[in-house]
Amino acid sequence: MIKYIFTLLIFLLQCFTLFAGSFRPLSIKEGLSSRQVFQVSKDSAGFIWAYTHMGVDRYDGNEIKHYQLDETVESKDHILSSTTMACDYSGNIWIALKNGKIYAYDNRTDAFQLRVDASGYLSFPVLNNILFDVDNRLWLCMSTGVYCWEEKSGLLLAGLKGQCVNCIVQIDDTEFCAGTNKGIYRLKRANKTGFSSEEAIPLPAEMHVESLCAFGDKLFVGTFSDGAFVVDKSTRKVRSFKEFIPHVPIRTFAQAPDNTLLIGADGAGVFQIDRTTERLLKHYITNEDDERSLNGNTVSDICVDEFGGIWVSTSTNGISYLDPNIPDVRRMKHEQNNANSLKSDHINVIFQDSEGDCWYGTNNGVSLYRHKQRQWKHFLDGTEHGSKVVLALAEDSRGNIWVGGYGIGLYAIHKGTGKVQKMEKRKTGSDKGVATDYIYAIHAEGDYLWIGGIEGEFTRYNMQTNTYTYYPIDCVGDLKSGRDGSLLIAGCSGLAVFDKATGKAQWHQKFGDISLHYPIRCLLQSSSGDIWLATDGEGLVRFNPDRGEARAYTTDDGLASNSINSLLEDNDGRIWFSTEKELYCLDLSNDILISANDFLDITWGYYNPNSAFKLDDGCLAFGTAEGVITFSPSLNFGQHGPIELILTDFKLLYESVKAGMKGSLLKTNINDTQKIGLNYNQNSFSISFSAINFTAPHRIRYEYMLEGHNEEWEHSNSVRSVNYMDLSSGTYTFRLRAFDKYTGQQIGERSLKVVISSPYWVSWWALLFYFILLSVFVYIFVQYRRHKANEDRVKEKIRSFISIAHDIRTPISLIKAPLSELEAQREL
């Protein structure tokens, strides 16, 4: 074992094509269930699947969802490193366990279902690998041969009886190649489930074959302990890749769309070769000092998606993703106790000389990197002249490097000899020497050196005659060449256009409608002629001197701060600038402002003032308090293609609702559901959403609305879940939209209808019952009132008759009394 490790270390040290890469990590910190990942694959829906030591994970670019293969058994109890994951030709994920059980993902129920159990056909089955052929037929690599499985016929022995088969690959409709513990066999299929011939392919020795990949007439072979080979199937010629691939287990091959082949080595990282020439192109390995490098060298699997993205799983440190749309971001840092590295991480100024070598002014002197020799050399770092805070660098016509800084004065470094010369400081009344020890800017042009700082006069030094000229200008932050031979000066008093012939400076503090009250830290005149000013409190100012027009970019435009630290123009005319913590790109052709920290996936920051440089190859370098960031600005900031919005979860009372369970509200998974019905007491729920997007998830801005509840769109940049509480019964529509944050373009939309039923006491049958009951009550009441009215009417008639009778009786009696009296008198 010690000999193996020593051999591998020697190999890695000798290999000269090493690339740290620009990978994005996907591990426990990002939600992966385990750092031990055995395989990675992508399904037809666009999800990335990983099986780990703790179970199966699904990733959509934003969130990771965990699955169990069997609800009754913990996944970790039967997930082993020999477990295999494969995607069938329908795009479904299958997972095969070593014990012969094979599960398939069921999209309807959003769960894994047991599909094959080899123990029903074989005693103590040992399953090493599986393959779906072009007819979507399943082949099993077992410890006792190759088997074929079909739904109707079950498991049948196809060939290589008694052989321990580790892998199999399909060459054409009838031909396969299988790797065993002893070598490789070419298999000819006689029928759908069996092979008619088994022919051994000669290798230099008996080998344990781990992986195979077919490409044209070439068969790429990975072994357990003999490295990697390529076999020409027509000539039978075998070539070893021992000159650049060590004898470590070769776990996997993956074909990339650019005619390259990726080789995953357990212990040596990823090798990228040209499939035609078989030449090594890149070797991705782990760099402990670079968080953007490959997560680990213990590569277990590689998946290349349809966009060219490379997913690398490791058995020790999760998954690494190499995004083809994100440029390779390099980070240089000081390495402790390593003289062949930056002297300090605090980078104040960056400069590339005429020979292409890079100089870095730090808080501990100057570090020079000679790219051809790949060696560092350090100056003014405390070994001879004391530790120096370097703020300015320039190269003269003789190839000498001039250095200025905070309280250190001016130095000249003779690159060829390494000699460092301290320039004299001007004394009172003298016409010799540099006017200030606090030098912030140096500009070399011909025989002249222009020097500015925060105190003392602006100085011109004639290197030919060793004479000095002084100008009444102080507090200089930056110097740049202007048009018509002028010199542009950025300082505390604004912008000066300095005439080098006359020594006159014309100062400007008002630009169009903008008046500056803060110092200008740095400036540049872009290829369009515009002058860009990085101010210390009023944002970034764009000034067109021909038209006299100006435009300021401030926090009102989304900047994190109005104090701008650095400025660069790339080869495409885009303006890059930084605040203390954020890097921005101003794409003038598309009129969009991009947060480049997000776009470049840069998680570190603290950009230093005036610490930026465009290198000869067009790459941009920015100095920070934590080292140097270098990247290619060749990015596509244009229109974003459409994305698929997905619903990832639906919860009631904080519990996820799953399809397929008894009494479930869902007949299929929530993402495939168009309408969901809820009871009256299920009127509080949450909906989680996302977008399948791995290349630029930070560019997506979400908007959502629940029609019937609110009629305004709500915004979300990072939170991808929304809660609704105590809704009334009715029909609602959850609407979701996605926008490109930079262009404002809508790139996705979907909806879900939610129907909340009324409670039983206000249901239609309850209302009908209430109506009938009310009708009966009204009927009874009406009848009662009618009967009562009739009774009242009868009584009233009777009363009327009595009254009439009384009225009639009264007059008769009145008449009768006088008549009686008359009769009595007549009788007398």
Task: Describe what you observe in this structure.
Residues 1-17 and 74-78 have low confidence and may be disordered. 37% of the residues are buried. The chain starts with a helix and ends with a helix. The protein has five domains: 1-30 and 202-325, YVTN repeat-like/Quinoprotein amine dehydrogenase (Methylamine Dehydrogenase, Chain H); 331-474, 7 Propeller (Methylamine Dehydrogenase, Chain H), CATH 2.130.10; 478-605, YVTN repeat-like/Quinoprotein amine dehydrogenase (Methylamine Dehydrogenase, Chain H, 7 Propeller), CATH 2.130.10; 645-758, Immunoglobulins (Immunoglobulin-like, Sandwich); 765-828. The longest helix has 64 residues, at 764-827. It is mainly beta. It is built from three helices and 68 strands. A hairpin with a 4-residue loop joins β40 and β41 (458-462). The strands form 17 sheets. It has a five-stranded mixed beta sheet, with no helix packed on it. A five-stranded mixed beta sheet has the order 62-68-67-64-65, with no helix packed on it. It is 10% helix and 44% strand.
